[in-house]
Amino acid sequence: MKKLFLFLSIIIFLFACEKEKKTQDVFTPQKQEAEKVDVLTINKRLFYSKNSYPGVLKESDSFQIASEVGGVIEYMPYDVSDFVKKGSVVVKVNTESLQAQLKQLEVNLKNSVTNYNRISKLFEKGLATQAQIDQAEYAKESVEASISALKVNLRKSITTSPFNGYVVQRGKQKGEIASPGLPIVSLMQLDPIRFVVSVPERDIYKINKGNIVKVTIEASQKELNGVVYRISQTSNKSNHTVPVEIELENPKNGEEYLLKPGMFASLTIPIVREANGWVIPLDSIIRTESEKYVFVVRDNKSIKINITIKATYENEALVDAEFKNDENIVISGQNILVDGRGVVINKTSSMDSQKYLYKKSIARCKKAEEDILTLSKEILNSDLTVFDFFKSESGYILLYDGLLNENLKSCLSEI
Q: Rg (Cα) of the chain, in Å, rounded?
């Protein structure tokens, strides 16, 4: 009996110990493993975005072909939509009546010359007066002047194209009578082609005549380089915009120009939002209904930093935040972090030094200084030194927006 009681006591004791162990497992905090994250090292830098303004394409030039002399149209080879080369004959008026007049005047000139020579000989012998020789000379010169005027009209009977263009309208047909000065054919020049856009007053100072700018064609979504051709000297009072014309080279598909007057396009202007601000990837930002924040790594812990977004462009955001220099901001794994959690940095990236530390890049590319100076003068009509040029807003944007020559691009690629 005593043995049975001892056996039961041992079983009860063991059961109690096991229960106490399980209870301890439930209430004893477990050590949490550090989370692996990827970070991006950031510092303050320049931030710019781009504004786009819509507009339409138009012909770079148009011309009304008219004959300077009247007559029946005997030659008119081009129809609507036909391409006309510069210098080609567009209209020729029949000149039979003018040719007949010319022959008659040539006969009259021959008689006038004969008469003048005869009276000159008589004058030398004292058999003719000064008045007679003056009259004979006047008659000869009068006929010569008529012949010269008639030959001018014969040349004017042929009208040529002043540029390479297309026929867009015909006001007359072959065989009809042309009246002096009245339009017969309308021509349109399509290469180069013009893009007309209204730029808000706040941005008009960012472009100058001769600047290279980006124009996106809506139909094809192709981005083309254009040159600012004309900036209006007046602003539209109703919407406070300034008309701007930009010249574009018109690409061809075979013999057909791809850009047509009336097509929609848009002008893109780079705008510097802040010269020295905190710029972070959009993907690093965590959004809730009440706040926006990111995580940074300090002393191997994730630290929550609240931010205010000031502007965004593509995958970047300009923000207000309490960051430090060389801050490591979490760009992968941030969605499972909490403030103060231990972290292990798996991968560290940094902002593109070639893109943002441009002063250093230019210093190492001094061999291209002459090319850069040429570029600054051609595009900005500027006499700035190379370093001052690339400290400017326009210089920075040109440097990293694909508008450099191959010499400088090659140099920068070595950095």
A: 42
Pairing of strands 45-66, 301-306: unpaired
Mean pLDDT by 10 residues, the chain (415 residues): 51 55 49 81 82 88 77 77 79 77 82 84 82 84 84 78 78 77 80 89 82 86 87 89 90 82 88 80 91 93 93 86 91 88 83 44 51 52 47 48 49 45
177: its two tokens: 């009578």
For 65, counting Cβ atoms within 10 Å of its Cβ (0-12 exposed, 13-18 middle, 19+ buried), the class is buried
- Say if residues 187 and 84 touch (Cβ distance below 8 Å): yes
Q: Which amino acid does the sequence have at 240? A: H
146 contacts 135 by C-beta, under 8 angstroms? no
Q: The tokens 């000139």 sit on which residue?
A: 109
Q: Domains of the chain, with CATH numbers? A: 36-48+274-352 (2.40.420.20), 52-59+189-272 (2.40.30.170), 95-156 (1.10.287), 355-413 (no CATH)
Of 52, 57, 379, 376, the C-alpha closest to 214 is 52
Distance of alpha carbon 105 from its chain centroid, rounded?
60
CA torsion angle 69 72 74 80 (round to 10)? 80
**Encoded tokens for 405:** 């020559």
* 3-class state of residue 14 by DSSP: helix
pTM over 0.70: no
